[in-house]
Specification:
Number of strands: 0
Helix content: 55-70%
Number of helices: 5
Structural class: mainly alpha
Strand content: under 5%
Radius of gyration: 11 Å
Distance between the termini: 22 Å
Largest sheet: none
Length: about 80
Amino acid sequence: MRFLNRGPKTMEVKGQLAAHIFQALRYLGKDRVTADVIARLRRLTRPQDRADIKRNLKRATAWMTPVLNSVLQEDAGHG
């Protein structure tokens, strides 16, 4: 996964990793977000990052909201 410089819309997202995740999802686009991408984002996020993402959900586009909610879900192997 490659993070790009943040644009004006992303600058409104609080939390460094959260802003990068929003930007990465915008870059990938709805049709290129796979279960593997979601799993990788889950592995990258710590509890504080998840809190930042949750706080910024209102800034997500409609298609990104379910993707971000999937990233926020804790699975058995994540702690």
